[in-house]
Amino acid sequence: MTEQGDSKADETIDFSSIKPIALPIDKEYHTFIAYKAGDPDSAVALQIVELLGGKGYKCCLHEGDFLAGKSTLRTIAQTIKRSIKVVFLLSENSSACEMWKYQLDVAETFHIENKGYKPIIIKLDQCYLSDTLTKYTYLSADKPTEEWIGRLAKAINDETDHLISSRRNIKFVAVPCIDYNRDKEHIIDTCRYPHICAKYIINDDICDGSCDKKS
């Protein structure tokens, strides 16, 4: 499971005590659930929606919630944009589904560009975990839903798991060239090889020229 706070991976969280967070003004759903249509995946998706919906969470499934006659790809992108989190049901069925992979790509791209959240992965069976997914922890659905739905609700409510939360606000500062155009007068505006202060990037400190590291 996606580790949240100090809770343990095998700990059952009291679902009855959890309430959904308020929807931001630009969001329509707490979560969009991506899965491969057909049992058992559809059955799990419907059960999640029923349990979360009963607590006040607004969830979206492509089966039943998408308006007929619209572009599927565009609707998926729009729905992901209007959802706080995206839950992916991973199984033998979905791992080979191109549409499922497309939804993962859209979710990651949108949330990276908009300081959004990591996808929430629910592993339904003993399917292979691709390299793309190994960078995320996951919730194992190998027990009755009632035993892990609380952990899912907590993950949806969590507001600390931004995809780029560890990325620094990097600013590139041009300094005089040392290794290029050595025999010419340095002009920052036209320099093709500006050097960057490594200390400034790593620590977000104001560059004072004392690091002696330029790359």
UniProtKB/TrEMBL annotation:
<protein>
    <recommendedName>
        <fullName>TIR domain-containing protein</fullName>
    </recommendedName>
</protein>
<feature type="domain" description="TIR">
    <location>
        <begin position="27"/>
        <end position="156"/>
    </location>
</feature>
<dbReference type="InterPro" id="IPR000157">
    <property type="entry name" value="TIR_dom"/>
</dbReference>
<dbReference type="Pfam" id="PF13676">
    <property type="entry name" value="TIR_2"/>
</dbReference>
<dbReference type="InterPro" id="IPR035897">
    <property type="entry name" value="Toll_tir_struct_dom_sf"/>
</dbReference>
<dbReference type="GO" id="GO:0007165">
    <property type="term" value="P:signal transduction"/>
</dbReference>
